[in-house]
Amino acid sequence: MRVLVTGSSGLIGSEAVEYYDQQGHEVHGIDNNMRREFFGPGGDTTWNLDRLRKTARRFTHHQVDIRDENALERVFKAHRFDAIIHCAAQPSHDKAKDIPLIDFGVNGTGTVNVLEMYRRHCPEAPFCHMSTNKVYGDAPNELPLKEMPTRWEYADPADYNGIREDMRVDRCLHSLFGASKAAGDLMAQEYGRYFSLPVGVFRGGCLTGPRHSGVELHGYLSYLAKVVVTGGKYTIFGYKGKQVRDQIHSLDVTRAFDAFMRRPRNGEVYNLGGGRTNAASMMECIRMCEEASGKKLNSMYSGTNRVGDHICYISDLTKMREHFPDWDITITLPEIVEQIVRGEMERAGK
User: Strands 26-30, 2-6: parallel, antiparallel or unpaired by DSSP?
Assistant: First the structure.
């Protein structure tokens, strides 16, 4: 099988490259290190690309910008792909407001470019689109919540498993990032449904793991661990530090893609996060990072929350588990924290 991965030097993309390379497949990656352009040296993914070039035996890198339709078409014409994983994106909730044209160019137009090249050249291949829970905007904040000592929690027992795929995506505040990702999300669904193509849309919760180049504006758990390990000051933005996220390891994300490829559906949508068992508040994650590293976090609190941010978000994984009974979360949150902290300590030489 020949697999194409966009955003192949990023967290999920590099995990997918390794996963399929280790299975003996030929893997092609598209990435132009825009993460460095978005976030500066801390976001540079060159180290990850270098690692893949050394360890992956069947990996070919293409230095291509997905906004460049002609360059994309050259890649698709030269290679017939049997599966496509689209992870390339401008990923920051906050950065988008400073670069709205670039943000939409990558997340909206770039996604349509990849989808159209796919439709023209290999429409029978399963296509996995990495979306985000931010397509729901702040609508999840309308669910009744109760304040606990270290976290916010759903007040209605009917919401215990978290946010389902029928949560609305309009008539709410998204951030420009949430809106541009919603555009790509809807286009991916449309290519699946209108053209009857095997396209799956995965609305990610907090995607994480030791391969993340975390920065303050994106990669919350990775960046938190980095600050705990290396020092500096961490800012907690609003909600008393009790905001809840469900963390999913990049390997479990890739395994979800693989499950879809084996049993694809046209234009189907899945919420994909760590679910109830891997959910924790910021306060609780800080404690876990401190315990794993043996260091204390130097933090400050800002009463101003990020625009459109979720107070409590847990992905309801019921649909994923029903459609793909062989898939489930395999890496627990304590294991994820341990891996990330250990990776940050190794990179810091500690």
Answer: parallel
Is 193 in contact with 266 (CB distance < 8 Å)?
yes
d(CA 82, CA 1): 6
Q: CATH classification of 2-347, choosing from 3.40.50.300, 2.30.260.10, 3.40.50.720, 3.10.450.120?
A: 3.40.50.720
Tens digit of pLDDT at every position of the chain (350 positions): 999 999 999 999 999 999 999 999 999 999 999 888 888 888 889 999 999 999 999 999 999 999 999 999 999 999 999 999 999 999 888 899 999 999 999 999 999 999 999 999 999 999 999 999 999 999 999 999 999 999 999 999 999 999 999 999 999 999 999 999 999 999 999 999 999 999 999 999 899 998 777 677 666 898 899 999 998 899 999 999 999 999 999 999 999 999 999 999 999 999 999 999 999 999 999 999 999 999 999 999 998 888 888 999 999 999 999 999 999 999 999 999 999 999 888 877 76
* pTM value > 0.85: yes
Domain boundaries, the chain: 2-347
The amino acid sitting at 327 is W
